[in-house]
Amino acid sequence: MPERKTGGLDWAEARARLERMMETAAQAEALSPAKAREVLDARAQELARPPPSERAASHLVEVARFRLGGQMYALSTRFLHEVLRTPELTPLPGAPPLLRGLTLLRGEVLPVVELTPLFGRPVSGLGGTVLVVGLGRAELGLCAEAVEEVTQVPRDALLPAPTALAEVGDWVSSIHRDGTIFLEGEALLGDSRLVFDISDEGTV
């Protein structure tokens, strides 16, 4: 009969752990108090460690990689709501260069920005794709030429952001060995340069 798995609990693994605990208790009865404590501590450390699959997953971060102006960027998928292909943008006279315009998303107005001016480069005018990002709701659209892939990246492949990038803002979290700039979603969404009052009474 196959082993049961209920609610994500691996009964075979749980039973194996219990059997090891019973074996440990039996061994402890035949050992000196000091040695028994040593054996029990070792078993406790073993039980406290997550399964190998969980340990492996904790070393990976899932990101969407996108390209704009010859540069690759990556953002954690937990901030990504959807991807829009060539949405219609309404430009706003007098808006800052990075604000490419506004688009409608299911009846809600969404500001769409280009990140290149924040890196000291001119607006490329490129990007027919828009990544809709936000915390719990759609807050901002990021222009991109293309979304290359959604992938899992080992954390040990990420390097601290160079000083020049770190000075751009705390939303540049790290850089991949291949040159991809990793963005910190919460800091990006909280950057005052990317917060716009688009109400009738507000000014951009």
From TrEMBL:
GO cellular component terms, A-Z: cytosol
GO biological process entries: chemotaxis; signal transduction
Protein name, as recorded: CheW protein
Segments traversing the membrane: none
Positions of the CheW-like domain: 60-204
Source species, domain of life: Bacteria
Pfam families in UniProt: CheW (PF01584)
Listed PROSITE patterns: CHEW (PS50851)
